Amino acid sequence: MSVTAARGFEASGVVAGLKSTGLPDVALVVNRGPSSAAAAVFTSNRAKANPVLWSQQVLADGVARAVVLNSGGANCFTGSFGFQTTHSTAEAVADALEIGAGDVVVCSTGLIGTGDQAFRDKVLAGSRAAALALAPDGGRDAASAIMTTDTHPKEAVVQGDGWSVGGMAKGAGMLAPGLATMLVVLTTDADLPAAALDRALRQATRVTFDRLDSDGCMSTNDTVVLLASGASGVAPAEADFAAAVTELCADLARQLQGDAEGASHDITVEVVNAVSEQDAVEVGRSLARSNLLMAAVFGNDPNWGRVLAAIGTTQAEFDPYDVDVSFNGVRLCAKGAPDRPVTEVDMTPRALHILLDLHAGSETATILTNDLTHDYVHENSAYSS
Amino acid sequence: MSVTAARGFEASGVVAGLKSTGLPDVALVVNRGPSSAAAAVFTSNRAKANPVLWSQQVLADGVARAVVLNSGGANCFTGSFGFQTTHSTAEAVADALEIGAGDVVVCSTGLIGTGDQAFRDKVLAGSRAAALALAPDGGRDAASAIMTTDTHPKEAVVQGDGWSVGGMAKGAGMLAPGLATMLVVLTTDADLPAAALDRALRQATRVTFDRLDSDGCMSTNDTVVLLASGASGVAPAEADFAAAVTELCADLARQLQGDAEGASHDITVEVVNAVSEQDAVEVGRSLARSNLLMAAVFGNDPNWGRVLAAIGTTQAEFDPYDVDVSFNGVRLCAKGAPDRPVTEVDMTPRALHILLDLHAGSETATILTNDLTHDYVHENSAYSS
């Protein structure tokens, strides 16, 4: 149900001919109200796609009534023609729903540089068809239509006291800090103003999607949008709401990690006893960014030397000769010297837990990442995105 | 001839049993004088190996008489026992040559965490054997003994006016900014003081080894050392000497790039019209660090969209919508929009030239890198280093 789990929402997913596979490729999520409060976060990449440039303006007033999403083309670096395509897409949806185009968020994903007249024609026709296909149980259709190299739709729901929040996500590669190549739509029937939604969303993404770093690459199109219908008539405490949104985003982030392109390990890097949370994040991320370490994990090699070589490149406050490194509960390095034999570590499960004790402070952070595999190289050399 | 091309030097390479292949694995380079001026640069990784910690102290007074190098073990994160091994190695060489241990540079390469009693015994015996095997034409033997995953020894010589400078290098992976996993010994018979050698070496490495970024990973053991014998009796102008050292380092850097682990393309990223040289370096490096782009290159896909997505993550001063991108002379993107069709680019040669015109200033920089291939993943998952 995902985006249609909360009251006040309808959704759809239709075939617009953008995907060569003939699978659904345009999705629409509509907020029927009574509230139309909304918030969003976007890629921190300076190279932003046209839909991001457009949607940032849509969200400026904290109001959005619909989100239209297409796969099969990122509409990024497509010139002024591409921006006009995004604008026309919002207008097509607005006309069909009898709302203003300035309340329509647009998201696109696919190959950068794709956005010619044929693309525009298909997106516009698909948007109109999606408006006609809207249904109160259309969440799964929408979640399927936004898939690119994803192997399955990603949905989750968290129940509050008299209200709920649900969501869908796409993105199986290019996962990086400041958001992944990832489109996420969250919907809630809680009745909260846009400013509260914004605070909850930023709090949630900071510790979930922003700490998912599959391959260090950052997309041009990342968008996470939260729509509130207020249809429950319930105004939850902000802390409760933020906790639910965080739980929801954590669930979706784990689903994205588990479906990362070509990955054979889902890696949880836990950094403890750092001087600051920022230090812990930087140290954890340096592991996620080390091709040498991530290739070793693919080979089931618990290469703690590559861990230390990676963290030595950071600015974080710690002594490299006072660090403990554990793989799946086995401490292989204590205070910068060999400890237990590497043969004690079982690297065969898909889940891998790397624990780094910096012995420098009391702060902690967890980064989610994936290994570097033959399949990652294959998918990203054979598939243009 | 490499390190024995200049007058006043002897070298050797011997089998110490550190490599499982039985190939030579301990090298020695000795400066017979009359001068013993020296300079060096080391990894900027905070996780420094014992030989680096030792050799930094050796070079503090600008004097070095010998460099002993072993493959088959990095002697990094091996505790105080490991540091003692480095110290003993310098003493073994010093005793054999009747010089002070404080004038012996030690370099190691191989698996981090390797440095037990058996390792120490082999390194010490190998160092003594290497001293007995010294020869005026031993350069090639030394260059061979420092190889790890290198497929061939790397040597170069540049002739000055009455003097020369030559060198050897190892390192076929982990090439990264702030030096690669790379051991380089340069020798000259020019008669220059340590301060002049230091200036020339830093000037040369800044624009050569520091701009070679194969996989973004930085080693714990990188060392580039320059020894001057003064045996020519010629004191060249500093500018001439620095130019020769730069030419030599550029030659060796290209050899390292051409032998990078598993690579199928040697990529020259040329960034022009940047506001500053630092901006140009940052932009060029962002391409070298993009796994998505480097996998696309492996697949012969001139994916200019991934170029723009990569540079958008930098702090450099430019407008992403005012950038031109060319692959092998074909401009695929002009001012952030598609230009020539990608089918016009021939990606099959090993050499690839990516030109980025930022249209922001007048500074330029060139970064050397390699693509991300199945073989890279294979070598770095199967081989522990």
Automatic annotation (TrEMBL), chains A, B:
Keyword Transferase: yes
Residues carrying the site annotation Cleavage: A180, T181
Reaction catalysed by this enzyme: N(2)-acetyl-L-ornithine + L-glutamate = N-acetyl-L-glutamate + L-ornithine; L-glutamate + acetyl-CoA = N-acetyl-L-glutamate + CoA + H(+)
Active site as annotated: T181
The protein's annotated pathway: Amino-acid biosynthesis; L-arginine biosynthesis; N(2)-acetyl-L-ornithine from L-glutamate: step 1/4; Amino-acid biosynthesis; L-arginine biosynthesis; L-ornithine and N-acetyl-L-glutamate from L-glutamate and N(2)-acetyl-L-ornithine (cyclic): step 1/1
Gene3D superfamilies from the UniProt entry: ArgJ beta chain, C-terminal domain, L-amino peptidase D-ALA esterase/amidase
Superkingdom as given in the UniProt entry: Bacteria
Binding site for substrate: T148, K170, T181, E261, N380, S385
EC number(s) given by UniProt: 2.3.1.35, 2.3.1.1
Primary location group: cytoplasm
Record site: Involved in the stabilization of negative charge on the oxyanion by the formation of the oxyanion hole: T109, G110
Cellular compartment(s): Cytoplasm
Sorted UniProt keywords: Acyltransferase, Amino-acid biosynthesis, Arginine biosynthesis, Autocatalytic cleavage, Cytoplasm, Multifunctional enzyme, Transferase
Function: Catalyzes two activities which are involved in the cyclic version of arginine biosynthesis: the synthesis of N-acetylglutamate from glutamate and acetyl-CoA as the acetyl donor, and of ornithine by transacetylation between N(2)-acetylornithine and glutamate.
Family: Belongs to the ArgJ family.
Subunit structure and binding partners: Heterotetramer of two alpha and two beta chains.
Name assigned to this protein: Arginine biosynthesis bifunctional protein ArgJ
